[in-house]
Structures are given as C-alpha cells and as structure tokens.
C-alpha cells in the first residue's frame, strides 16, 4: 500500500469521524441508558474510528522510526512521520471530543473506552511521528 493511499484513507476516516461527532453530541441525550453490550451506537462508532486512526498513526510512526536508520529515502521518512503526526493528532482530537460529549461511563454505549484509547494511542503516535520527523531532518 502506497503512502498516498494510506494518507487518503486516514484523512477519509478522520473527516468521517469529525462528521459523526456532531450527530453523536445531538443524539447523546436521545439514547437510552440501557444499551446492549453488542449494539453499535453512534458514540461507539466515533470512539472506535478515532482509536483506529490513532492506531494507524502508531504503526506508521513506528515504521518511520524504524526506517530512520538510512535505508529508506529521507522524503519517504518525512512523509511517514508527518502522516503519523497527523493521524495521532486527529485521533486525539476526535477521542477528546467523543469523551466530552459522553454522558456516561464505560458500557453505556457512548464510546468512552474508544475515546480514551484514541487519546492514549494518539499521544503515542504524535510522539513517534515527531521523533521520526526530527530524525529525518537530522539525517536528511
């Protein structure tokens, strides 16, 4: 999979997550408190999407750090580092937004667990992306 396709997929997921966050805020009061464990609510979709985007950022950031040894062209390393940084920050923003509109704890169907995972994974992805970007500037 090329980096361009990966960036397109990540940006589509981020824009989809941001577009779903507003209906989640409006729909949060309409959802019942008793939600089945396996039902897929809007909050869970947004939280899971944010966590997956942040996880993709962690994977890309780790690959960018591994490739900073000089075996890959520096332009590709920079692209991967920027992609990890953007995916991490996007996951953190959408995860924080999801946590802000959630009116219950874990298990209520508001996506609290996914939002918290997105915050943690997004922070890791942003740090990995920033480190890889700094290394690519130093060696490039």
Strand runs, count: 0
Shape: elongated
Q: Determine the mean pLDDT.
A: 77
What's the quaternary structure here? Answer: single chain
Give the count of structural domains. Answer: 1
Instruction: List the secondary-structure elements in sequence, H or E.
Output: HHHH
Task: Offer a quick outline of the entry.
With 140 residues, the chain is mostly helical.
Top keywords for this entry?
4 helices, mainly alpha, 0% strand, 140 residues
Characterise this structure.
With 140 residues, the chain is mainly α. The chain is 76% helix and 0% strand. The chain has 4 helices and no strands. Helix 1 (3-27) runs parallel beside helix 3 and helix 3 runs antiparallel to helix 4 (112-139).
Question: What topology emerges from the helices and strands here?
Answer:
Blueprint: H1 3-27, H2 42-66, H3 74-101, H4 112-139
Helix pairs in contact: 1-2, 1-3, 2-3, 2-4, 3-4
């Amino acid at each position: 999979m090329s980096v361009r396709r990966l960036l397109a997929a990540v940006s589509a997921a981020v824009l989809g997550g941001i577009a779903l966050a507003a209906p989640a805020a409006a729909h949060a009061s309409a959802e019942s408190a008793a939600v089945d464990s396996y039902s897929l609510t809007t909050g869970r979709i947004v939280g899971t999407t944010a966590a997956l985007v942040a996880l993709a950022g962690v994977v890309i950031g780790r690959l960018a750090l591994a490739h900073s040894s000089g075996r890959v062209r520096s332009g590709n390393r920079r692209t991967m580092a920027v992609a990890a940084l953007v995916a991490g920050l996007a996951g953190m923003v959408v995860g924080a937004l999801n946590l802000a509109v959630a009116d219950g704890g874990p298990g209520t169907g508001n996506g609290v667990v996914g939002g918290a995972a997105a915050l943690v994974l997004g922070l890791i992805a942003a740090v990995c992306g920033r480190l890889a970007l700094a290394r690519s500037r130093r060696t490039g």
